[in-house]
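Please, structure for the following, as tokens.
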Amino acid sequence: MLASVSAFAETLANVLTSVTVAQGKLEGVEEQGLGVFKAIPYAEPPVGDLRWKAPVPKKSWTGVYRAEDFAPMPPQEVRTFGDQEPPKWSEDCLYLSVMTPAKSATEKLSVMVWIHGGGFITGSYTNPMGFNLAHKGVILVSIAYRTGALGFLALPELSKESEQSISGNYGLMDQILALEWIKENIATFGGDPNKVTIFGESAGAIAVSMLCASPLAKGLFRGAISESGGSFCPVDSVRHNNNGIRHLKGAEQHGVAFMKRIGAKNLKQLRKMSADAWISDKETTGVGGFWPTVDGYVITDDQYKLYEKGEFNDVNVIVGTNSDEGSMFVRPCLVAEYEGEVHRDYGLFADRILQLYPARSEQETFAARSDIFRETAFAWPSFAWARLQGEKGKSDVFVYYFDQITENPWMRGPQRGAGHASELPYVFGMHRGEPTPMNSAMSELMMTYWTNFVKTGDPNSKGMPHWPVYDEDKATVMMFKDGAHLINVPNRPQLELMEEFFKWKREQ
């Protein structure tokens, strides 16, 4: 017994907890057999004159920087349960964490970079934790970025300040700077800067999609994993139902309305205001709120068109969605109200939409609205991404469909499948309470596929159900439900109709 304890202590002593990066010396901690650096600043605090500016690389420091505690989340409306203490937030939020199993800087481990979700409005780089993934022999990096108004406010005054005459994509520029920092420094943590894979869920997955199309991110990663997200809907001056993206002029108009609503007359006054003044603004904290912008620089054009022209960062990807994604975002309504909104939103396509998403009772409107939201916000963009990259790219595309039903406290109606974000406990191996044998087996399966992909660009390995490269006309979609097996594209008639609808909308 004493020998085994001694050996374990010796192993922990060898984990990297002290490193030197470009800015200076770093000190982390050992946790669960990993070297953990909880809050490494990759940029100068975006405060004062740097509020609503492109991020500035972190300057060198003297002495040892102790990255032993997590940094506050970006300013956002915070929800707590019971007597739970609310998490802290601060505009000084541009940090990243590193979890490394390496014992030396020479190991050249593959790297996973997590981009959190939260609708580009909320979220934290500290959740979920990646200990189990790192124990699979990869380095897990999680990055924070500006959200809400601080990350995505566009204004004519801000565009005039910019050398590129743009505004509104500060959160995406944060992510790109963080990836540049990782490229420069990850080797000191035992990582290989040429084996970086980005992955994210929801808004994080949409950000992954945008980075795959941004020329500013070229060469910063070799693979991407998108869990419920993509940015392939048409560009417009407004956003509807969590699909679409604004052009710069539309985003600026959205920003001007926001500024007036919270009582600021100009940018000078806005810069003097505390973030407390707007984090609860109802017009911008829900669907249709702050979002990345097609600015011609970070996001150069309608992403669907970019992919049609082959103008994207051609890397291997895993793309997937969940079976009941929309249930978190809609509510039941009267049948007449549902039919009215379909006619308003879909015009010439309304009758065909109602045929594929019928509702004859108030309860059925929940399922219909939920499935429409699933398609427009998550499934169709993922389907379009897989199809376009398969046609125009040279890299491999792998597609999954997650249908493992687990308890989801955010559901707004009867649970018919796997809700939005339901795959995260399986990908990270972090279930509420004691996991069942099936949950544990599913976690092991998904974590192995994900980390195989990070290490080799291919999710497959010996002893695993084979996951083929995507072919939309064959059973090549990996279904995760009580294990893993292959299926044809799910809900294909609905996806094909949305493909036709968005093509029509793009041409208007």
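Residues 215 and 298 are 7 Å apart (CA to CA). The longest strand covers residues 191-201.
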